[in-house]
Amino acid sequence: MSTLESLKETVKRELPVWLESDPAFRKAILALTNHRYSPRAETSDWFHQTLEEMRRERERQDALWRKNDERLERERLEADRKWEEQNRKWDANQAELAALRLEQSSKWEEQNRKWEEQNRKWEEQNRKWDANQAELKALHQESLALGKRIDRSIGALGARWGLR
């Protein structure tokens, strides 16, 4: 092993002991490396500042979530109200429709009764008409028979009195 390598190994092994035991040595090493690393106070401040920013951002996000939740709840309540209103209108419409159906059914039943009454009257009228027609035919037949009988009687008189 070379002298340089041997020296490096010795420094690595002894440096922690020297830093702990010799405050002046530690101060000299920190002064040598100070430009490469941020001081502890600065790093601590930066760390606490970052944590504070993260906390504020989390609070801001929480506030946004609360606002969003409140907005969604208002929208849900509004939607529920609208559904209830629509259901109420639907129920009222269905009740009105049922009443109209009942009224229409009643009117149809009344109209059917009138038609049945009208049909009954027509049937009665047709029976009377048929009876009248039968009577007229019978009278006509009687008239024809009477006419024939009168013709025969007149013919017989004429034959008897020599009119022929």
Task: Give a description of the structure.
The protein has helices at 3-21, 23-33, 40-161. The chain contains three helices and no strands. The chain is 93% helix and 0% strand. The chain is rod-shaped and about 195 Å long. Helix 1 (3-21) crosses helix 2. It is mostly helical and 164 residues long. The model has no long low-confidence stretch (mean pLDDT 91).
Q: Which labels suit this protein?
A:
mainly alpha, 0% strand, 3 helices, 164 residues
Give the topology, please:
Blueprint: H1 3-21, H2 23-33, H3 40-161
Helix pairs in contact: 1-2
Task: Provide a quick synopsis of the model.
The protein is an all-alpha fold and 164 residues long. The protein contains three helices and no strands.
